[in-house]
Amino acid sequence: MGFNIPRGTQDILPGEAEKWQLIEAKAHDICRRFNYKEIRTPVFEQTELFARGVGDTTDIVQKEMYTFNDRGGRSLTLRPEGTASVVRSFVGEKMHGWVEQPVKLYYTGPMFRYERPQSGRMRQFVQFGVEALGSADPAVDAEVIALAMTFYEELGLEKLKLVINSLGDKDSREAHRRALTAHFEPVQDELCEDCRTRLHQNPLRILDCKVDKNHARMKDAPSILDYLNEESQAYFADVQRYLDEMGIGYTVDETLVRGLDYYNNTAFEIMMEGEGFGAITTLAGGGRYNGLVEEIGGPETPGIGFALSIERLLMALETQGVELIEDTPLEVYLVTMGEEAARRAPSLLQELRRAGFTADTDYLGRKMKGQMKAADRQGAEVVLLLGDNELAENNINVKDMKTGEQQLADLSSLTETLRRTLTTKGES
Ligand code: HAM
Predict the structure, then answer these.
(1) What pTM was computed for the model?
(2) Given 2.40.50.140, 3.30.420.10, 3.30.930.10, 3.40.190.10, which CATH number is that of 17-169+229-319?
(3) Is 285 close to ligand 1, i.e. is its CB under 6 Å away?
(4) Which of 20, 125, 370, 374 gives 20 to 30 Å between its CA and that of 83?
């Protein structure tokens, strides 16, 4: 009997894993330049954290969480996103007391949502996200957006569309909320069951409903932009001005509401334009969450961040035909002939690897011909041929696979010989 991989998950195999490494390296690199520091939090948290943080009325909390009781009877949940955990840590570690503010953090790691799997929608997916806590300067909003856009661009992704909106501050949201309730109340019987609940709990969510999205009342629903008070308007204008000055193009979309409850003021998504990407075109999402730290038990602290999934990024890169890597070549393959030589192989390989070479050998006891074939298949740049005779003389044959040239080298200075051979190849 065999076992199936759980629905909505995937194995990342050699060939593909190198792309992940490259993307993760790019994430570390971009965060270094923007001065964001890495944080690693557990993959599970108290369930209540997400109910509070992400919001009771969201699909994530109501339908998509992997929740279980541990053996001590505590309700725990596999994290569906990273922001609540980062804020939990910010509060617990009293980061609001750190000298350097805002506290700028980033993370990469698996998230879990019980969603209907489809292309670009997994049950386990890896997010790269950043959070900046402790400043309400619109320049930070622009910085976070710029970080995301620069990350994609440097990986070679094109046809990106940045969509921004403002959800306003508390007062603006309250005014908008009242207007939405008044707008949908007369037709509530025509709305889906979820939306009837949302009407009183969180009417903004109605605008994001997949079932009712074609309802006649959706089109002329009150726009948040008409309810922004002066302060929120000025804030939104500042964010846009900074983006303009940074040369980052964007579209304002007043219907962008995001799927999580903690947002206010700036909300944004980065989409991919163009054909061939399947139904899902949103690559990244984020926004400001000025009330979240308080909600989770900390002092009033503004925050903003975004997250993207590496799965969707890879899909986008593939759709656009962007090649992330050339094969990392195997530099050295060690072919041995004879018992003594075979016995010397592990220690010789260890020396080579310590010296920085990508090196391998045969572990199946194949004859020389079979070993040469393996070296060839793996594209080895240099083959080392070690027989008992050479070994006795402290020598080894170094064969440059590109030119076919072979030289007898002294084993004690092998790394220098290899370095010379591989450099010459690179130059030719
Ligand atoms: P989110 O919009 O729920 O926001 O997710 C952010 C990104 O995660 C999405 O744009 C998408 O790339 C990816 N994603 C979400 N669900 C899946 C899935 N099932 N399969 C593959 N990829 C997925 C958040 O999670 C917020 N924490 C973002 C944030 C950070 N806001 C402020 N700070």
Answers:
(1) 0.90
(2) 3.30.930.10
(3) yes
(4) 20
* 322 neighbors 23 (Cβ within 8 angstroms): no
Tell whether ligand 1 has an atom less than 6 A from the beta carbon of residue 311: yes
Q: How far apart are CA 96 and CA 133, in angstroms?
A: 8
pLDDT, tens digit, 9 for 90 and up, residues 354-413: 999 999 999 999 999 999 999 999 999 999 999 999 999 999 999 999 999 999 999 999
Listed residue (97, 96, 151, 106) closest to 131, CA to CA: 106
Task: Tell me the Cα Rg of the chain.
Answer: 28
The per-residue pLDDT for range 11-63, each reduced to its tens digit, is 999 989 999 999 999 999 999 999 999 999 999 999 999 999 999 888 999 99
CATH class of 332-422: alpha beta
User: What residue type is assigned to position 206 of the chain?
Assistant: I
Whether the Cβ atoms of residue 47 and residue 75 lie closer than 8 Å to each other: yes
Q: Is 80 in the pocket of ligand 1 (CB under 6 A)?
A: no
